[in-house]
Amino acid sequence: MLPRDFSAIIALGTAVHGAGYIDDSNMSIWYNKGILKSADSPEINANFVAYLDDILIGFRLTYAINQWEIDVWCSPELWQQPSEKVCYFKCNTVDENYRGYGVGSQLLKLSTQAAIKQGASAGVSHLWKQSPGNSAVKYFTKCGGVLIKEHPDRWNELSKQGYECPECADECHCVAAEMIIHFEK
């Protein structure tokens, strides 16, 4: 993923997740949280995109270790990993016409490989339980994810700030499944 991909990412993210979830104001911030810079090694980017015939069909945003905040929606006491060794899988998005072909799994695999190079031993995420057919949780489980805790109203405050959940009419009351994948070395 590179900054030249941002406008296509925002368009796909809005189509899949609803207006106000991803926009110009947060795209650059989220992107930069996925890049680990160090003086003794090359820059490692844990964010990835998937194109087919020059059309963006999917993207994965992943925050590098120590480049994200553990907030009230996180349960580090249940992770069985030191929190400073856990990356955050922020967003995995695949165009509805290309789901079921392994695009999301491949993006996760690439991000996991980059996160391991960044020093991560695990990755945590909040999966949208109300995704069609609970596909988000199913895909993450298939990729090795384990349920840690469920968080009702995870995106409620964001919906009060302009986010338009594709599932809820007004305020978002969707449940987030906090899940973790432990990386094998």
Automatic annotation (TrEMBL):
Report the transmembrane regions from the record: none
Single GO MF annotation: acyltransferase activity, transferring groups other than amino-acyl groups
Q: Name one Pfam family in it.
A: Acetyltransf_1
Residue ranges constituting the N-acetyltransferase domain according to the UniProt record: 1-184
- Keywords tagged on the record: Transferase
Q: Does the keyword Cell membrane apply?
A: no
| Name used for this protein in its record | GNAT family N-acetyltransferase
In which organism is this protein found?
Colwellia hornerae
